[in-house]
Design brief:
33% of the residues lie in helices and 24% in strands. The strands form three sheets. Strands 2-1-3-4-5-6 form a six-stranded mixed sheet, sandwiched between helices. It has a six-stranded mixed sheet with strand order 7-12-11-8-9-10. It has 389 residues and is of the alpha/beta class. The chain is built from 15 helices and 17 strands. A hairpin with a 2-residue loop joins β8 and β9. The protein folds into three domains: 136 residues, Rossmann fold; 107 residues, no CATH class; 120 residues, CobE/GbiG C-terminal domain (Nucleotidyltransferase, domain 5), CATH 3.30.420.
């Protein structure tokens, strides 16, 4: 997984443009420092720009160097000047819509704010609206689903922290909504029908849906057999059952290891077990262990490689995790609890599901647990789903 940079590069070309760049730069920095509802600086802009620590204002720098740095480090770019300059500057560095940073163009009078790259995944459209509100300008949004008020699958994924596995599926779903057709979404054992605007029309269990077709065809595998336009699942086999596969970050990997185990070995063991379990590595949201491993370089580096949080628990906290776990007298004698990987994987969400018990290889033990697919404190198909689109 790639991490979005906390920096935004603001590029200007004239005295007037530079003045606007400084004004915007100061506003962003002030907003980052403010944390009060109703303050003169829009509090939500802080979230909108990923809590940027600082911004850079360029009036004299080789544009190609700036663009290269921005794209390599996933730094957003705001050009104050002609859109043509921005397009020619960024053209050599474009990769694809899932990895390019956002790019916004503002005219030097500050009348129009135009997102030209990564409108949904990079949140350029959202940022443009925020900046336009601050400048009392007009945000010029050209994304078809936005201007037509249609459900946008990539924006849905971005809002809910789902990983898009097949970007070509976005176009297929958008084609349906732009044609004012309903789309179906499958998440765990639920099948939901959304209107082209994203309103929930129907919600039913997969079993109920299958039963309507043929009661004799009902089986424990009905969830895997039901196709939909959008599939939300961490399991690789489900990804082929729909036009667009979204992976929820819901997998916790508990790890135990001997001291000074290299990150490469730990990561290899985790990836090997994920593959054996049929789980997409992009679904990993956390790596856990016992607190005596909190400074273990290999574990810290592994979590960084996955771009996830590394969380540890005390032996007492692990001992109190409910459930039946693999027990080792040696481990209990060594660290004070009979199992580290399984218990730590389940520690933060005891009601989760332990998908893979202890897997040991070369002094590393790995267990895999799954959390419920949730966003914003709501399940994906809450009646108020529109609030998250």
């Amino acid at each position: 997984m790639e991490e979005t940079s906390n920096y935004i590069n603001i590029i200007s070309f004239t005295k007037k443009g530079e003045a606007l760049a400084k004004r915007l730069n100061n506003y962003i920095l002030q907003s980052q420092k403010k944390d009060q509802v109703g303050c003169e600086c829009d509090r939500d802009l802080v979230k909108c720009i990923n809590k940027c620590r600082a911004s850079k204002s360029y009036s004299s720098i080789r544009l190609s160097e700036c663009a290269k740095e921005s794209f390599e480090k996933k730094q957003g770019m705001i050009f104050i000047g002609a859109a043509g300059i921005a397009v020619r500057t960024i053209a050599p560095f474009l990769k694809d819509k899932l990895h390019d940073p956002f790019v916004i163009v503002i005219d030097e009078n500050g009348d129009y704010v135009i997102p030209i790259l990564s409108g949904h995944v990079g949140r350029a459209n959202e940022y443009a609206r925020k900046i336009a509100a601050f400048l009392n300008a007009q945000a010029v949004i050209t994304t078809a689903t936005d201007v037509s008020n249609c459900f946008a699958a990539d924006l849905f994924a971005q809002k809910n922290n789902y990983v898009i596995q097949n970007k070509e599926g976005i176009a297929r779903v958008s084609a349906k909504t732009l044609a004012h057709q309903n789309v179906t979404v499958r998440c765990e054992n639920m099948l939901v029908t959304l209107s082209f605007e994203g309103t929930v029309i129907k919600e039913e269990s997969i079993e109920q849906s299958e039963k309507k077709i043929d009661e004799k065809q009902i089986s424990d595998q009905s969830v895997q057999e039901k196709e939909a336009d959008i599939i939300i699942s961490p399991f690789i086999k489900d990804g082929k059952k729909g036009s667009l596969w979204l992976v929820p970050r819901c997998i916790v990997v508990g790890v135990g290891c001997r001291r000074k185990k290299e990150a490469a070995l730990i990561k290899q063991t985790i990836c090997e077990r994920l593959a054996q379990s049929g789980i997409a590595k992009e679904a990993v949201c956390q790596i856990t262990s016992i607190d005596r491993k909190k400074d273990e370089p290999g574990l810290i580096e592994t979590a960084a490689d996955f771009n996830v949080e590394f969380v540890t628990f005390t032996e007492n906290e692990l001992r109190q995790v409910p459930g039946n776990f693999s027990s080792s007298a040696f481990v209990e004698k060594t660290v004070g609890v009979d199992n580290v990987c399984e218990r730590s994987a389940m520690a933060e969400e005891p009601n989760g599901k332990l998908l893979s018990r202890k897997y040991a290889k070369d002094g590393v033990t790995v267990a895999i647990a799954m959390r419920g697919y949730q966003f914003g404190g709501k399940i994906p198909f809450d009646p108020n789903i529109k609030d998250f689109l």
